[in-house]
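[Solved] Which block belongs to which protein?

Original post:
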Amino acid sequence: MVEQTQISEQLHNFKSELFGYIHIQPKNIRTIEIKDNSVTIELRFGFPLGAYESLLLDEISTYLADTSDQLDYKLTCSINIDAHSHPAKVQAMPSVKNIIAVASGKGGVGKSTTSVNLALALKNLGATVGILDADIYGPSMPIMLGAQGKHPESTDKKTIYPVEAHGVQSMSIGYLVKPEQAMVWRGPMASGALQQLVNDTQWQDLDYLIVDLPPGTGDIQLTMAQKIPVTAAVVVTTPQDIALADARKAVSMFNKVSVPVLGVVENMAMHTCTNCQHEEHIFGAGGGEKLANEIGVELLGSLPLALAIRKDTDEGQPSLVKDSESEISNKYKKIALKLTAKLSLQEKEFRADFPTITIENS
């Protein structure tokens, strides 16, 4: 007679060929019920799976059946996305579970395009997502989301509601100023504006808030790391040596402020000629993997240098909106799945669960 402990041990030893970064831990096993030759297992994961859920459950069922073909396995799965700890000594945001900063040391590597598509990929996987354009001087999110001309609403003249676009909540200084208006502000003013955008926006129960940081390691980046409860970071780079040198500086900055880096996304890795289909590494090859190995994190994925990515984003219809099942969109979804699976392994944040207690003298 098979025991629950035996099945639990088999689940712990499961290694996914499709999703090598997904591991079944004791906390993921909700229930195991054995009745005659039927075994019902309920699993719970701390990250969104979307359409990949059925693929994962089928793979686990096949694995269990191979270990004991005399039993009939039935698997179900639920998703519970927790808030995770952050290093900043500031109050956790009650309406935002996890804040993920997307950074690069250098401009022009496609960080904003990656940010918006990652946000849309997480939404496609079933999460509630917001995106914050932290580039005060050069906001691009209104254009990329096709939300130019939209303005956030306010009911109390103190806070504002995010602008929703393609099912994602968004906020940008670009919604509050004219498109041609230049923000000629010194660092402290820009940092103050960023804190207001984060704290004065009425985010609606977000699982993830993606923050598109400007390039560099200046005031805005330090404000995000020290004044706002950032959970983790992702670094975007191209394979070329110049971009890698600046990406290392971004990683160094996050290390100094104790923000964990979940991994590296390599952008513009390969170009395929639309006429002859010849593939060429225009910006070099293997740079993202080299950086990931150097800093001890995982390469979350590589994205091509493709005309469609640029064109769709300029039209306000990013890849995940234009065709959510395209090859490029599936690359973004796999990156989003991998980074949230890694995030789910971090320590949970419990401070957000407790109410604020105020003691007054009567």
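(Second protein starts here: sequence line, then its structure tokens.)
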Amino acid sequence: MMVGPDIARRASAGPTVDDTTDLFGLRSPLVVRALLVLGVIYVVVTVGTCWSIASVWSWIGFGAAFLILAVDLAVLTHVRGDPVRAWTTILALGLLLGGTALAWWSVPGATFEPVQCLPAAITGVVILALLVVRGRIGAAWVGAVGMSLSAGTWAAALGLGFAAGLVFTSWVYPVMLFASLFGVMLRPLADTIRMLRARAVRHASESAASGAAAVERERQLALLDRQARPLLEQVAAAHDFTPDEVIRARLVEAGLRDGIRAPAWQSARVRAAVWQARQRGVAVVLLDDGGLADAPALQSRLDELLIAELAAMGSGRVTARVMPPERPARASIVLTDRSGVRRYVCAQNGYITGGAGPDAGVEPT
């Protein structure tokens, strides 16, 4: 028993494997909440330790630095790709160095306290750890060194000395060491998880294909048993068919042929309308090349259109065809009778044109 092209196409397509952007849950509610908590702590510590600063420009700098670092975190947790792309890595490093430098340079020397440097530095370490998780360990170390150089330059300009700035960021390196070791162990695990996920997706696709084919096969067998078996039993019994029985046998044959070559046109109401039209002498040809397998709502609209047209025809010929995928038209219905030829065409956007006049059409829903 043949399986229709729409069933075969859905089976072969199956679900696809994600590109592992969220393989480690970077966009999970837990991580999002943790980053929100980090943001709240950043604001509270900055406001609490810098409360005595009266300069408006310093507060503008603090706010801008916070926004820059927040954008950096959003980029690293939402941009797709594994490992993250080179341009995204460069952007993340630029935002990291720019945000931390702006936060530090916004601290006036007259009211400087070491704790005022911590919010930006801690956020910078989180960004570096995310770069490690996203597969850019080398770039993360470049960012760590860049943070130290930036801090040293700022401290030297503040009169604290270049070495003091390096001390402010020295604790970053033990964190980076453990993060890098974690990343080195994590990457092979990521590959294993990706392979297992691909295997699970492939298994689910094959199971869905088997299930869809089994359902279609059962449907066609039930239809064959209900319509063809009585005729075959009569043939086996050398039954003398009357003209009406011959007509019915031909209708059954045509219906079975439709089930094989036009599964898209096999709703109960369409089958009934086609049966009745053929009884009245209308020649009906149904074809399905699978172009509407992913658009059941559009197929339903075409079904209603075909049913209405068949009900109004007492003679003539009707050809309803679902086109192959990627064609300019998704489906067409051509009707020929004494009044002439009418043609409906369904475009890729779902707009159906044609019918009684050149401007007739059915808007997509």
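Accepted answer:
You had them paired correctly. Confirming on the second one: The chain has two domains: 29-199, 260-362.
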